[in-house]
Amino acid sequence: MPLGEHLREFRRRFIIGILALVVGMIVAFVFTDQIIWAMTEPIRVVAEQRGKDDVVTLMYQSITGPFDMRLRISLAVGIIISAPVWLWQLWAFLMPGLTRKEIKYTVGFVAAAIPLFASGVLVGWLIMPHIVELMASFTPQGASNIYDSKYYYDFVFKLLFVVGVSFVLPVFLVALNLAGVMSGMAILKGWRVAILVASVFAALATPAADIVSMLMLAGILTVLFFAAAGLSVLFDRRRAKREKALGLNL
To answer: Coiled-coil annotation: which residues (predicted)?
Structure first.
């Protein structure tokens, strides 16, 4: 295909992806009340625990703050809602240039990465209320917990995104193994470093005082690492058997 045709094809698929994103944002904007209510549930729990004497609330520091928060939520949720459309447009644009083997690996990567990312987001969502409640417990008597809406939004969505991405990292290890960059045994030999990294990440992603959440997150990441290492070792053995069989046939 000539360069001009490539550019026109890219523009067409880009516009379709953007239109899908806009539709997803509109749908998400309609449900922002429910999303904000779910996000701020930990604040209401803290307010109930502190009683009527202390102020615990979400604060907007500007006139456009409420609309800005809804727009941010709509964008984030809209990207997720429209993901099947814009991912397909990206895939359809790249697929003609991929070999059959590359297509198989890409499909396998996406099929593993999407549920792992979703599981990570779910774990982050379950951890988030405990973090808010635990940090609020250190507030001195007589002081107030007034959460800035922009900061609170960033805290929630960054936590969900970071934990979600951390769950996908083992898939990258398997991809490196399939690409021949790292052997399964090389990955497995790094288990001490992997446990250390998982523990440090869990400690940074969760409050130092919330030991249960930290151990749960570190444990899940460690299990995912060993699963990736085990799959890589299995793939190496299968690859070695195929190569041995080809050698005997030759």
So the answer is: none
Residues constituting the chain? 250
Query: d(Cα 235, Cα 239) in Å, to the nearest integer?
Result: 6
Q: Which domain holds residue 62?
A: 3-249
User: CA–CA separation, 166 vs 58, rounded Å?
Assistant: 29
Domain count, the chain: 1
Provide the token pair at 98.
């991929």
pLDDT at 24 over 60: yes
**59 sits in which H/E element:** strand 56-59
Query: What is the Cα–Cα distance from 145 to 176, expressed in whole angstroms?
Result: 46
Closest CA to 113 of 73, 172, 163: 172
Vertex 228: Cα angle to 222 and 229 (nearest 5): 90
pLDDT, one tens digit per residue, over 74-124 is 998 898 888 888 878 877 776 776 677 767 777 777 778 888 888 888 888
Hey, what are 233's tokens?
């070792």
Sign of CA pseudo-dihedral 136, 142, 148, 151: negative
The CA-CA-CA angle for residues 210, 116, 205, to 5°, reads 25
- Positive or negative, the CA dihedral 85, 86, 89, 90 is negative
